Amino acid sequence: MSGGAIAAEPGATPGDTHVSYGVNPWTETSRDALSTFAADVDTASYTYARRVLQGGSLPPAAAVRVEEFVNYFKYSFPRPQPGSPFSVVMDAAPSPFSPGSHILRVGVATPAKSQQERKTANLVFLVDVSGSMDSQDKIGLAKKSLEILLSNLRESDTVSLVTYAGSTQIVLPATSVEKKDKIRAAINSLRVGGSTSMGSGLDLAYEQAMQSMRPGTISRVIVLSDGDTNVGPTSHQKILDIIDSRVKAGVTLSTIGFGMGNHRADLMEQLGDRGNGNNYYIDSLAAAQKLFSAELVSVLEVAAKDAKLQVEFDPSVVARYRLLGYENRDIKDGDFRKDSVDAGEIGAGHQVTAMYEVQLTDAAKTQPSPLGLVRIRHKQPDGHEAAENTFQMGGVPAASFEAAPSDLKFAFAVASFADMLRGAEDAQSWSLEHAIVVARTNAGNDKDRLELVELMPKARTLRPSKTTVAR
């Protein structure tokens, strides 16, 4: 078998918690030409799925978020247009899997900054040291990840270390990175044991962050946990309320997940979203190195706050469309210009890519035309007023998939792989073998892309005899 969805059977990763947000349906452009969603640069879904696949299992369908697979990889972008902080790419081509359909890529990027150019950072590491973290792939890997992060910080940065289990503790108050040995000793002193009181830990971490806040600097809490919580204000909503009460002061929060068996992916994602930060999952030292070295500035410094994207399709060109992913980032079309509606954060040098499957009108099939435009609305990191930029699709779809830009082809290979992994109904007839070939042909010498090429065949060998269809 080489075609069709490859979703895991229920219970594929016992103990881990994921939430399914369904699959976006097809939308008739004549009824709704607008597709509106919040920016998302999280990558936890991809690294979690990678670990599960490398361990010899298929990831649960609910764990697969198409946009986090696509956004794990880097693509080429032009320079930003004058007067805008964003670079934008819109390109399309006939689908290699669905005759009569086209694929559309909408990509948005912010300019990268060097370590020297970024703002000074005041970081609070909030580390889960409860009994559930007692394994090398949890507390062991978390401590090594913090060491990597520390080695890439500047001497002008400060670090605090707070732990939580049955009780909370300030292991290290705000300390200049000039004192690396002191910080390293605090990290190495971490020991696990007891139950989990995440809510109390968050309160204490935010207090530390508030004490170190200075104008023109970054203040961020970084949570390192498996997401399990069983003491104190443990409900999702109560923990989210703690974040809501503090994020308005300007302290952002990012989450980094570790381990399997009781990983609360649902909670970790919500914490990062509500904390105006991002959600990551570290499955290896190599992943920690990538996140805290090559991508550190993007992780730390926000370039665009409450960023929303709205793609407007031309009804004379596009008959209907479906967005692959972003199901839990959906925003009502009418809320695009309501600036009180929370959206997503884009870091300096981050990229946001959305993939669509579209079907053209009869007229557009004979007379190729641009498919539409994209609007981006955002606030400055410290601002309250939103700005809006509009970008028209500059060209017509490629005449064939083979003639399309390499980045478009690779991004679609990734998106189609994710859509098959989650058992999407429209992916039932797609070819995993073809997706592997497309990925391999367009991987170049990129290390991350080549890793995906090696990963995809593992899913083929693990394909269940009976597939669950996601709708």
Structure, described:
Helices cover 29% and strands 24% of the residues. The protein is α+β, with helices and mostly antiparallel strands. The strands form three sheets. Strands 7-6-5-8-9-10 form a six-stranded mixed sheet, sandwiched between helices. It has a five-stranded antiparallel sheet with strand order 1-12-14-4-3. β8, α6 and β9 form a beta-alpha-beta unit. α5 (198-211) runs parallel beside α6 (236-247). The chain is globular and about 70 Å long.
In spatial order, strands of the major sheet run 7-6-5-8-9-10
Mean pLDDT: 92
* Structural class assignment: alpha+beta
Q: What is the name of the CATH architecture of the largest domain?
A: Sandwich
What percent of residues adopt helix (DSSP H or I)?
Answer: 25-40%
The number of helices is 13
Order of helices and strands: EEHHEEEHEEHHEHEHEHHEEEEHEEHHH
What portion of residues belong to β-strands?
15-25%
Distance between the termini: 22 Å
- Using only C-alpha atoms, the radius of gyration works out to 22 Å
